[in-house]
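Session log. Operator J.P. requested a structure for one protein chain; no other inputs attached. Running the standard single-chain path with C-alpha cell output.
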Amino acid sequence: MQKIALVGTPNSGKSSLFNLLTGLNQEVGNYSGSTVEKKSGIFEGVQIVDLPGIKNLFANSLDEKVSQTEILKFATSGEPIIMVANAMQLERSLLLFTQLADLQIPLALVVNFKDDLERLNLKLDVDKIEQRLKTKVILMNSKSGEGVDELRTLIQQNKFEVPTAFYRSLYEAEKNGQFINSYQAVLAANDNLEQFEKDYTNRQQLVDGIVAEALPKQAKESAFLKQTTSIDKYLLHPFGGILFFLFVMFLVFQTVFSVATYPMDWIDGAFASLSSFVSNTVSPEWLADLLSNGVLPGIGGVVIFIPQIALLFFLLGILEHTGYLARISFISDNFLQKFGLSGNSVIPLMSGWACSIPAIMSARTLDSEKERLAVILATPLMTCSARLPVYAILVALIFPNEYYGWINLQGLAMFALYLLGVIATLLVAWGLNKIIKSTFRPLWTLDLPVYRFPNWRNVLYSVYNKTKSFVVEAGKVIFVISIVLWFLASFSPHSSEFIQEKYENHPQSETLDLSAVELEYSYAGYLGKVIEPVIKPLGYDWKIGIALLTSFAAREVFVGTLSTIYSIGSEEEDTIIGRLKNEKNPITGNARFNVATSVSLLLFYVFALQCMSTMAVVRKETGSWKYPIYQFVFMLVLAYVTALIAYQIL
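Structure written below.
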C-alpha cells in the first residue's frame, strides 16, 4: 500500500485535514523505539501518516526529532509528502517547505484555512506560489472539506512533483569519499549554530519574497491585526488575562456539573433498574448475583460519568480550537517562570485535566530536559478525568445540589478541587526546579493562531476518541475487578453456621442485616481488615480500604468497587449515592460517609498517585523506574498526611 506523510508546522490544521481524509478509519500507536504517538489512516486506498508538528528540520524536542527521522525515511524511500501550510502564517510554513524541497522528494503543498482568507477579503495567488515552488499547490478549507476533491484527484493520479532544490549546496558533503544526502549532513552537524543561522536567514529572505508576491504583506498584516489586536488587548493582559482564564475555567466546571446532572441521574437509575431486573429473571442464582451485585454495579460506576467526562473534553476542545489555549500559554509564561517552567508547559499540564498519560507524553514537545522532567513528575497532581467520578460522588455526599443565584454549590466545590491540584502541581514543579540541575535554557517561542470558530468535526472526534478510551480502558479493569470483588465479598472461609452465630451474638443484631455480617467475614472483609489499622486514623473502615487497594490500579475503580461492595445486601433499586448515604458506622450508628471522612477521601485522591498506567508511562519517558517509584512514594505520603490532618481537624 502506498504511504503518504502529512507534515506541517503547529497550528497549520494538519490534524484537521487528517481527520477529514480518514474519518474514524484511524489507528493510533507509537513509533518504533519511541513513546511519541503515531496516527495513521486510510484514504482512497492509501495509508496517510500524520507526523507530529515540526517547525523546521533542526529538531530539538522529542516530537520534532521523531518527525525529522520519519521525514528522512520518506526521503530515502521516495514516498511522497503532503505539506500542510497555514494561510495566515504562510512564511513559517514555507520555511519548512524549502527544507523539504531540498530533500528532493515528491511533494504537494496544501494551504489551509481558505475561510480565514475569505473572511478577511484576502486573495492568495496560488499560481505564483506554484511557479516559485515548482510543485502542486491546493487551497483548502479543512473545516468544510472545500478542496478535498482536488486533493483526492492528486492522490489518485499520483501527481506529486519533485520541486527545485533551494539551498541544497549548503549541506552537500562527503563521508568516506561518498556523497551523502544533504540532510544526513545536517544531522551530522545538527549542533552547528552558525550553519543553522546562515541557513535560516537565507531561507527567510527567499520565503518573504514568495509570500510578498502571492499575498501582499501590508494587506495581510492589517487584516490580521484588525481581527486579533482588539481581542488580545484584553485576553493577553498580564493581570486581566489571568482573571479571565480563571473565570472561563470556573464556567467550564459549572457547566459540567449543571448540564451533566440530568443524564447522570438517568444512567444511575437505569443501572439500578437493570440490576433489579437481572436479579429477578436470570438463573442460576449465582449468575444473577454475580451480574446484579458484581458486574453491573461496577460497570455502572464508570458509565454514569460519561456525560461529565465527555462534556469536559468537549469544552476543553472548544478552547483549543478557537485559539484561546495558545493565549493561555502566552499569558502564563511570566507566572510559570517563577516555578521553573515556561508557557510551553501549559499545554501538557492542562492536558492532565483529561488524562496524565497523554499529558506526560506531550511533555516531549519541551526543548528543556529539566523542564520536561519537572512536568512529567508534577503532572499527575493535575486533576485527571479518572478523579472526576471520585470527586463527583464525594462532593455529592458533602454538598447539596443547590444554587446560589446561578452558582451551583457542587460545581464550586469541584472548581476548588481542580484549583488545589493546580497549586500542588506548581509547588512540586518549583521544588523540582531547585533539585534538578541544568544549564540549558532554550529560547521560548510561540505562534499565536488566528481566532476562529471551532472545527466541530475535530472537536467531536476528540471527544469520541478520548471518552471511548476512558470507558474501554477503565471498563476492562473494572470488569475483572468487579468479578474478583464479587467472589471475595460473596464467599467466606467460614461455614454458614459460624456466620449465623456471629450475627445472632452481634450487639446490633436487631437492626443489622445478615448480609452485613456475611460481608464482614468474607474474604474481602478480611483483606480490608488487614489494612484497617493503617487507614482508621483517616476515618476509613475496612470496606473503604478494599476500594483504596483496588483503585491503585486506576482511580476510577474506587467508585465501581464501592458500588459493588455496597450493593451486597442493599435494596435492589438503590442508586450508588443512595447506597453510600445509607451506610452506617456500626459502632456509632452515624453515617459512615460523613463530612470528615468524605473530605479526607477527597484530599487523599487529590494527591495520591493511583494509576499503574501513569507509572508505566513515566518509566518509559524517563527510561528509569527510580522516577515513578520516587513519585509514587512522595505522592502517597503527601496524600496520607493531608487526609490525616483534615480528618482529625474535622
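Operator note: The chain has three domains: 3-223, 240-435, 474-649.
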